[in-house]
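User: Hi! I have a protein structure encoded as tokens and I'd like to know what sequence might fold into it. I'm fairly new to this, so please keep things simple.
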């Protein structure tokens, strides 16, 4: 089988969790004998491929063109949805002019406005963006999902959210777990020399931006007897937020910037707990990786985190400092439950991701009579 991967145009220039998901899925599919290429253009020639795998429905300005191109060329489409709008954050916590606009707009209008803004500020003016600006965000979503042969959400709850918002009845799907690279996040093999100063800390590894709620995290840490280690760079459009986080951080907060993905394993191993208190996670790759390295978890209940972590984590609300503080104390004081690590290793590894993805491909091909 030969498959073409397609994602947002910025998947490598502005890497995120979806970048890791794309690259690791390719790596482990290739171990199963699937040949995978990654497209550099939005509407390539697909004659050499059996199937097209599109990532990230939220970036519908690209996904719509990619799905339409596959349909025109008669190729089955699998879609990794990675879908969870940040409407609650935009309306409740976003500052500045956009926050004012958000509080008087619906969720799809907000996404429409963000695409329009990216055309101006980030140079993301292309055929797909123009298409969304012409026909509307929600209409483009609906047209995109109508062309999909099989959905590959990261959880059942994510699929339920997509189906509910798009009015899909009984959509064909396979839940494909997000996962941990057990060769990198191998607790017994990771060397932590040089990190002795961070022993027993709380680590937060994420882009520094409003929807990740690091500001409320540093507020919750005030006067607590724990060290907080913030790993990550500020998002370019959130520099004022980053400066406020730095300004309000106490002496027990350390910023170390971005590190290589594999280097995170060393920090998780010395940490007592990990915090990811976003306004939406599906489920948050760093939480999975931290759990594999025997970190207790402080996480958001918003999104699909409970599908992954059940009762193993300390949950808190991203806009409630007292809630965050209580969850931090709980995670920092309780012993690590080895059952959490085993749960992650049993269910959320990339070989399982690849196997579920391949099952989805086979379903898509069968629906087209091509299996």
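Assistant: Happy to help. Inverse folding works backwards from shape to sequence: for each of the 371 positions I chose a residue that suits the local structure. Here it is:
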């Amino acid at each position: 089988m030969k498959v073409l991967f397609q994602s947002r145009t910025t998947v490598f220039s502005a890497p995120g969790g979806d970048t890791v998901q794309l690259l690791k899925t390719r790596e482990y599919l290739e171990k199963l004998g699937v040949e995978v290429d990654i497209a550099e253009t939005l509407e390539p020639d697909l004659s050499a491929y059996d199937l097209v795998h599109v990532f990230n429905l939220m970036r519908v300005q690209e996904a719509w063109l990619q799905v339409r191109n596959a349909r025109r060329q008669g190729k089955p489409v699998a879609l990794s949805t990675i879908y969870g709008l940040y409407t609650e954050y935009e309306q409740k916590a976003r500052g500045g002019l956009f926050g004012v606009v958000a509080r008087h707009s619906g969720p799809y209008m907000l996404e429409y406005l963000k695409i329009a803004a990216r055309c101006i500020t980030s140079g993301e003016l292309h055929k797909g963006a123009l298409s969304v600006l012409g026909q509307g965000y929600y209409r483009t979503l609906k047209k995109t999902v109508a062309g999909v042969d099989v959905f590959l959400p990261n959880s059942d709850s994510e699929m339920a959210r997509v189906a509910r918002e798009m009015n899909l009845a009984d959509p064909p799907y396979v839940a494909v777990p997000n996962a941990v690279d057990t060769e990198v996040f191998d607790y017994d093999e990771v060397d932590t020399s040089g990190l002795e100063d961070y022993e027993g800390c709380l680590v937060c590894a994420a882009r520094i931006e409003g929807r990740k709620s690091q500001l409320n995290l540093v507020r919750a840490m005030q006067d607590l007897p724990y060290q907080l280690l913030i790993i990550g760079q500020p998002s370019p459009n959130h520099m004022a937020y980053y400066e406020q986080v730095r300004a309000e951080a106490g002496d027990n907060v350390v910023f170390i910037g971005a590190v290589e993905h594999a280097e995170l394993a060393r920090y998780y191993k010395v940490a007592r707990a990990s915090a990811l208190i976003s306004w939406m996670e599906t489920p948050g790759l760093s939480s999975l990786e931290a759990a594999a390295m025997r970190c207790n978890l402080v996480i958001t209940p918003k999104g699909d985190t409970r599908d992954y972590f059940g009762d193993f984590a300390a949950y808190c609300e991203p806009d409630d400092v007292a809630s965050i503080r209580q969850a931090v104390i709980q995670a920092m004081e309780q012993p690590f439950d080895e059952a959490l690590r085993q749960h992650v290793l049993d269910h959320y590894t990339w070989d399982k991701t690849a196997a579920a993805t391949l099952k989805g491909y086979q379903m898509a091909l069968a629906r087209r009579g091509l299996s």
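A useful reference point when you look it over: The first strand starts at residue 2 and ends at 6. Feel free to ask if any position seems puzzling.
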